[in-house]
Amino acid sequence: MSDASSPSSYDPIAGMYHRFWSDWYLPAALPALEKIFFSRISSAARVLDVCCGSGHVTKELVRRGYRVTGVDASAELIRLARQELPGVPLEIQDVCELHLGELFDAALSTFDSLNHILTLDGLAQALTAIRRALQPGGLFVFDMNLEQAYSLDLHEWHVTVRPESVGLVRGQFDPASKRAETELIWFLRTGEDDCWQRRHSIVAEQCYEKSDVLRAAGKAGFRNVEAISAPDAGMKADLGFGRVFVSATA
Predict the structure, then answer these.
(1) Are 114 and 126 in contact (CB under 8 A)?
(2) DSSP character for 164?
(3) Does the global pTM surpass 0.90?
(4) CB of 60 within 8 A of CB of 37?
(5) Which CATH architecture has domain 149-205?
């Protein structure tokens, strides 16, 4: 995981992420989140949104009445989230080294955010930091992509065209290293002489065995560590394929 003071691979395409995927993950994931997170957290609980991005899921947490703090390593994603969630504490922080002034009743990390941590040691460090941010007995729920998920749509460009922007996305996966890369190109109309600005980024993710993820959570000090496949949790559509939800208590 990159240091929060360093540029994130999401910074160049933060606007693309925010616009194109605002209604993609959450509608598909809501049945699963209802089952394994929302139903287990009391109203007005203090919730840490880990790797909150531009706030798509954070908005839902706020809407439900939770006292939310969001953290993400991307300064640009946090800037966009602050625009839409004024008054909500949103901080630029590396999940591996959280520095927070309070303990939380629960934590949530969604949209395979923890796959962006590229080593197992780094994942264990992040899980330890999250556990330390929780009250004893606090719930942590996160999802991760397993190898199945990275077998979809490899090397094919997916294009989204809007009047003011064009986005291109394609993925590739190396089975030997278990490393996935998503290439994103964003053309944005500037409004000046009908010119277009090009932004480009490659976002890396690491695929882990489910057993390694569960073992890392246990070593981080979590108890009652359980995993459920996204379809079994109620998540439908392509986003549930090869995805697993993990719940644990501090």
Answers:
(1) yes
(2) T
(3) yes
(4) no
(5) Single Sheet (2.20)
What single string gives the DSSP state of each residue in 50-86? ET-TTSHHHHHHHHTT-EEEEEES-HHHHHHHHHHST
Answer whether 187's CB lies under 8 Å from 165's CB: yes
∠ CA(78), CA(203), CA(154), 5° rounding?
135
Rounded distance between C-alpha atoms, residue 204 and residue 59, angstroms: 26
Helix (H) or strand (E) holding 171: strand 165-174
**Residue 27: partners with Cβ closer than 8 Å, 6 or more residues away:** none
Cα distances (Å, whole numbers) of residue 98 to 72, 144, 192: 10, 20, 41
Task: Tell me the pLDDT tens digit for each residue of 144-178.
Answer: 999 999 988 778 899 999 888 999 999 999 999 99
Question: What is the length of the chain?
Answer: 250
Residue (of 71, 59, 6, 29) closest to 238 by Cα position: 29
Indicate the fold that domain 11-146+208-249 takes in CATH: Rossmann fold (3.40.50)
